[in-house]
Amino acid sequence: MAGLTALADSFHLTPHEALSGVFGSISLAAWIFLLVPQLVENYKQGSAEGISLAFLTVWFIGDITNLVGAVWAGLVPTVIALAVYFCFADLLLIAQCVYYNVSNARRARKASELSAQSGSSEEEPLLSRRGSENIGLPGSRRRSSAASRRRTLSGGRRDSLSKILEEESKNRVWLRNAISVVLICCAGAAGWVIAWKSGVWRPAPVGDDKSPTGTPMGAEILGYASAVCYLGARIPQIIKNQRERSCDGLSLLFFLLSLLGNATYGAGILFHSQERDYFLTNLPWLIGSLGTMVEDAVIFLQFHMYGEKTLASAVVE
């Protein structure tokens, strides 16, 4: 904090103006890279079954209303450009999910048809069909009992090993994601310093902020509509995770960046000004940010409860 105060003094900024700029820049960096982890996760899995298309669709509607509202209100070009970027990024992720869902469904249907055509062979030798039953073979029951005990013991060892490996995997995932979040914060802060030194960024005078009476009613309604969409978007994903008791296929970093972006976005607004008119103007976006942070916390709890099942199942098999 002392270093930030010294930096602000050297550039004739108040600490609140500097913090507002830094938080806003970190939020921007988080939003820019937000969808990349989920795109990469879907690509690695070759599937998009983990993420809810209803979640993405409602989120996309929220970004559309946000874009239209920003254009209607005549916001600065950078805000409009970001809104356009978000819409295209949403479309890219939705297109990837639809592609994987359709292609995997087609592949599963073909495999099912081939399995139905082949069926079970009725020409299988009688001895091979009954061999698993161990009927009439001397010592077969003893061997089966011994093998069963060995499987029980080895199964216990595999269960213990799977738990250890699963815990280590979780720790590595959280550490890797924490490092990514720190790097995003550093990139955002560095971007703000560069923008300030180059003259691209200047603190906006508080007195020049638009009051609610100066904002077109339609743009204000769209702002609240986008906040409602952002609040409702995660509900289908939370329900899906709870119903399947799994977060497999979801990128934890995706939701961490969402939390970071919303938290720093709200902090940037509040550090800029606490005046009533300014606060009311930005209230829809503050409501959307705060609400989605609560929902992201629920998803983090689901990650903790259900974890990744793929590693444990791979070890057991």
TrEMBL record:
The keyword Transmembrane helix applies. InterPro entries: LAAT-1, PQ-loop_rpt. Keywords: Membrane, Transmembrane, Transmembrane helix. This is Vacuolar amino acid transporter YPQ3. Belongs to the laat-1 family. Gene3D superfamilies: 1.20.1280.290. Residues 113-155 are annotated as: Disordered. One of its GO terms (biological process) is vacuolar transmembrane transport. GO terms for cellular component: lytic vacuole membrane. Residues 140-152 have a biased composition (Basic residues).
